[in-house]
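Re: export button greyed out
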Amino acid sequence: MIAVLSVAALVVADAFVVYRLADPPSYLVHSALRALAQVIAAAAAGMAAARFRWAAEYVGRAWTLLFVLYVFLTISYVLDRAGLATPAVSDVLTIIANVAAVGAFWLFGRALRIAGLQFDGSTMVKAGVFIGAIAVASLLVMPTVVEAWRSDAGALARTADLVSAVADMLTFILVAPLLLTLWSFRGGQLSWVYGCLALSTIGWMINQAADDLLPAAAVRDARMTGLFLACLAVAAAAYSQLAVSRAGAANA
Amino acid sequence: MPETTPVAAIFARHLAAYIGQHTAPMAIKTFAKQALGLAPDELRIPDTTKLLDAMRPMLSTLVGTQRAEEVAMLIRRDLGV
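Workaround output, generated via the alternate export path:
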């Protein structure tokens, strides 16, 4: 609930306050809001990773990779906005962030199976969720993959674009196991973790879809809504994971 | 008192707090079968340690090692083991 209200507050602030400012302050405040959202996600993921001793435990590895994702996204964004990033540095940061994203969501998506459990629901429903996720991912990202593939940019830039697009597609597909885990754990505290992670991916879907599917006037707000939702949902997931791990959480 | 405690119900209550009321009984059924060759309603208090050992990797994966140990301790406490 706090995450949803924070997303609403940031979107309203960006759409109705920052948008109406004159350009130098508008650019600064808008950039600061974006960076703030990413820093919140990075800090929350880092706290969750530290709680599980970073790479020492399965769940810690997943949170460590999410931490890497948001740290590198933030660094890349700030360097870019400050005019300090060379194309090569941006490309390398993009590649690392995207590989970390796929790794993180792969680990979260596999957690229930690694734990020795099975998704709840009929085979038909499970197949339907995966097919739906593949369809949405293809619809949203395939044009970008094709564009990156055909691009005549330099080798590193093309690789970064391709890695980014393919990583988006994979993480969008991996929303399927997150949703099935959420459904399997419904009523349990862990359902909040997986629900918020799925919401985060949906935020990135909105961000991705804005350019291709929305009218020009709505693109900016939709992209910001998606980004804020993605970042703050990760923070909410981390908070839920930390709450689960606190002593006495299930002491009946 | 512990001799009359329904073992599967105690496990289910503690697990459901994390993995929900639908998956908790499934987990007990799966691990009781794997580790002991028993159905949930055949579980008895002496089976507790072996069942907890079987479930430890699951709990560690989902909630971390420290919390997994705490949950195991709470289950042992409730079963008087």
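Chain B touches chain A at residues 13-14, 16-24, 26-27, 30-31, 34, 57-67, 70-71, 74, 78 (CB under 8 Å). The button fix ships in the next patch.
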